[in-house]
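This section describes the prediction task in plain terms. A model, or a person checking by hand, is given the sequence of a single protein chain and must write out its three-dimensional structure as a string of C-alpha cells. No templates, partner chains or ligands are provided. The sample shown here is typical of the held-out split.
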Amino acid sequence: MKTCIRALAMVIGAALTFAALPEDSAAATLLRMNHQMAANTAGSIVDQWFADEVKKRTNGEVEIKIFFSNGLGAVKETLSLVENGAIDMAALSPGYFPDQLPFFTAPNSIPMAIDNIDQAYRLSERLMKEVPALTEEARSKGIRPLFFHVLNPYVMVAKEPILTVEQLNGKKFRTWGSDLPRMAQAVGAVPVTLGVTELYEGMMRGVIDVMPFSVDLMDNYKVYEVAKHVMDITIWDGPTWGVWMTEKSWAKLTPAQQKTVMEVAVEAGKRDLEAVRQAAIDSDKNLRTKGVTFH
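The expected answer:
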C-alpha cells in the first residue's frame, strides 16, 4: 500500500512540475540549418548573430540551430535536404545548383561582371524586388530566401605566380556553376568543380593549380599554407550564399514571428556588408605576415 502511495505521489509531482514549465518552452520552434561555410568566416559570424537575435526577439519561441561546415549534409545534397523537409533551413550558394536554380545561379557565378561588394549587395536586393522569376523559382523548390551574403572579390590564388593569360593554359582551375567553367576553358585551363571546404586539400594534392578566392576566406581556411601567391585581378564578385527556409517551416511561424525574422534578416544583410569589408582589410595584413606575395 505504501509503495502505491509513493508511486502516486511521484506521478502527481511530475505532473505538477511539467505544468509549472513556462508556456514558451513547450511552444518553442526549433529550426535546423545546414551551413556550407566554417563558423569563423565573417558571413558565418553574421549568421550566428542572426540566429541569436531571432531567438532573443521572439523570447525564445523560435530557435535556429546552425550546423557549420556541412554538419547536416554535403553541399551538393543540401538543396534536396531542404526540398524534402529533412532540414528546416540552409545557408547555401545557388551556384552549386545551376540546373535547379538557374536564375539565382547567374549573379552567383558569372565571372568578371562586377568588382566590389557594394554592387553585390545592391544587386541581390534589386533582383529579389524587381525580378519575379527569382521568387517563382524559389517557390517551385518549396524554399524562401531570407537574405543573401556578399563576398570580397575572388582573386586568383596559386602556388606559383601566374602573370599572363598564357600561363593559365593547362592549369587545373577551380570553378562552380555553369559560367565560370566556360571562362576557364576559353583561356585553355581545365575547370574543376570543388566546394569551399575541399579547396585546401585540393590545392595541397594538386587536384587544382589555381582557384579564385577572397583574401579573407584564404585566411579563414588557411589556404596560405599551401598557396602563397595572389594575383590581384577580380575573377568573380557578387551575391553569394543565401539563408533559406523551407516554406513548410515558414508556415509554422506566427505572423509576428515571421515579421521578426524578416526584420532581423534585413539587419543581418547590412551587418554582413560591413563585416566582409573589414575582414578584407584585416586579412590582407595578416596574409602578408604569413609570407603571401601579392602580384
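For orientation: Confidence is low (pLDDT under 50) at residues 1-26.
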